[in-house]
Amino acid sequence: MNTLKIKWQRLLINGKTCPRCKLTEKELEKAISILKQYLNPLGIEIIIEKNELSVEEFKKNSLQSNQIWVNDVPLEDWINGKVGQSICCDVCGPSECRTIKVGKKVYETIPAELVVKAGLLAALQLIK
């Protein structure tokens, strides 16, 4: 069986994260469910890995938070997106957090459809 690995990391402080990461997690769960529905019958197993960023890691590079990789390739590379940043919330302090720009649209929360698109593109490489 082939494996499609989705890795996501976000800042966690005492089990709490910022609103955009919390919403991204919900979107990620939706995307995983959709991908499993379509890819499991093709013999592709979906593996999700969630990693925590420490406050120290976040302070060094806040754009590491809310980052997703599909088969070790950044999500934005699969979907022709660009990484940006914007002010987030009090959990993140004065640091700007990661955004993704696709076309003219900027996403603070990464929607399920972008993860699904990246997952399907990665799956195509597995079944070639």
UniProtKB/TrEMBL annotation:
Pfam families: DUF2703
Domain of life: Bacteria
Protein name: DUF2703 domain-containing protein
